[in-house]
Amino acid sequence: MFLVKPELGLIIWSSVTFLLLLFILSKFAWKPILAALKEREQKISDSLELAEKTKLEMQAVQAGNERLLNEARLERDKILKEAKEMKESILNQAKKSAEDETRKSIALAKEAIDKEKFAAMSEMKSAAATLSVEIAEKILRKKLENSAEQDSLINEYLKQMNA
């Protein structure tokens, strides 16, 4: 038993209805639907292109940032190296200057010591000469006849001078 038997009339009217519906849809609905689909497809395509461009731009910006960061690190390292070199140079210069000043001070001190030593020696020679002259003068004043008395007198004067 067939529930639906296709009869010739039903097939014709179904075909006519279908063709009429197809004509009406093609006239009024297909063009706007296809236009909307094309527009949507274009928007999606444009969005994908924009996303790809944005992605490339972001990669370029990140690469630029990385490059700038590396340059900044190199510059920082260079500045630190120059600062260390400058510090060492200043320290070496200060040490050299201090050593030069020390050498000069030592040389001046040695020179002063030598001058004082020379002055003391001169003074001692002068004092010895004066003492000798005074002793000779005292001896001559007494006009001693005995050489033993002269020796005794000289020794006595020498003891007085040493004390």
SSE topology sketch:
Layout: H1 8-142, H2 147-162
Protein architecture, described:
The protein has 163 residues and is mainly alpha-helical. It has one domain. The chain has 2 helices and no strands. The longest helix has 135 residues. The radius of gyration is 63 Å and the shape is rod-shaped.
Could you spell the SSE succession in H and E letters?
Answer: HH
Distance between the termini: 169 Å
Q: Tell me about the biggest sheet?
A: none
Helix content: over 70%
How large, in whole angstroms, is the Cα Rg?
Answer: 63 Å
- Helix- and strand-based class? mainly alpha
The percent range for strand residues is: under 5%
Number of domains: 1
Poorly predicted runs: none
Number of strands: 0
The helix tally amounts to: 2
This entry's quaternary arrangement is single chain
Shape: rod-shaped
State mean pLDDT (0 to 100 scale).
87
Kindly list the characteristics that best describe this protein.
0% strand, 163 residues, 2 helices, mainly alpha
Summarize the structure.
With 163 residues, the chain is mainly alpha-helical.
